[in-house]
């Protein structure tokens, strides 16, 4: 009886989470050195060599996801898409406090975004259209938190800091503000 060879490519699909897209992980015996990632619509396809150990594989998947998410631009989001994105974030970070509207605006040169807590309206500067999704999400979560706490109190920051990449997003935005010479934005990012 002939020995059955394992399949050349093993494919696993992992459902999307709040922080990651749907994943398709392809492990190939033919791939020997490199790993790669590409987008197929909203699904991120990861290609890995079969020789990676479990730990190496998990680390490679995490690195590929982070790199791919950072490179994926959100410039295609329309105002309705932006509202949908904010409402999805609200379900996780500010349950019971969803925005009434979220839209891109061109007139915010010293702020990344703003929120009218009385009306639930959030305005996001078009300067953020090219940032990675996790940075935009951090800004949206910040503004959503103003629907719960209109100030920058300790309670506000405790709520806003629940977003897992909040500190990274602040550093990213500080770099953008520094590169743009915007001292007012830099000062706002230094708030406690």
What does it look like?
The protein is α/β, with parallel strands linked by helices. Helices cover 39% and strands 20% of the residues. It has helices at residues 54-71, 79-93, 133-145, 154-160, 166-179, 183-189; strands at 9-14, 22-28, 36-40, 43-49, 101-105, 113-116, 121-125. Strands 1-2-4-3 form a 4-stranded mixed sheet, covered by helices on one side. The chain has a 3-stranded mixed sheet with strand order 5-7-6. A hairpin with a 2-residue loop joins strand 3 and strand 4 (43-49). The longest helix is centred in the first third of the chain and has 18 residues, at 54-71. The protein is elongated.
Provide keyphrases for this structure.
192 residues; alpha/beta; Zincin-like; four-stranded mixed beta sheet; 7 strands; 39% helix; elongated
Write a compact overview of the structure shown:
This protein is α/β, with parallel strands linked by helices and 192 residues long. It has six helices and seven strands.
């Amino acid at each position: 009886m002939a020995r059955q060879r394992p399949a050349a490519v093993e494919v696993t699909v992992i459902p999307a989470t709040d922080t990651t897209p749907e994943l398709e992980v392809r492990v190939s015996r033919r791939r020997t050195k490199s790993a790669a990632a590409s987008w197929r619509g909203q699904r991120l396809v990861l290609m890995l060599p079969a020789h990676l150990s479990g730990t190496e594989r998990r680390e490679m998947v995490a690195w590929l996801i982070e790199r791919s998410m950072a490179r994926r631009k959100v410039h295609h989001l329309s105002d309705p898409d932006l509202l949908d994105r904010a409402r999805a974030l609200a379900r996780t970070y500010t349950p019971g406090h969803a925005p009434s509207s979220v839209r891109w605006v061109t007139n915010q040169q010293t702020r990344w975004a703003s929120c009218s807590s009385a009306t639930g309206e959030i305005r996001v500067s078009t300067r953020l259209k090219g940032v990675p999704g996790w940075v935009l999400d951090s800004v949206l979560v910040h503004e959503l938190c103003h629907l719960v706490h209109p100030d920058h109190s300790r309670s506000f920051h405790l709520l806003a800091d629940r977003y897992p990449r909040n500190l990274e997003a602040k550093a990213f935005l500080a770099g953008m503000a520094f590169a743009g010479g915007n001292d007012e934005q830099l000062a706002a990012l230094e708030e406690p």
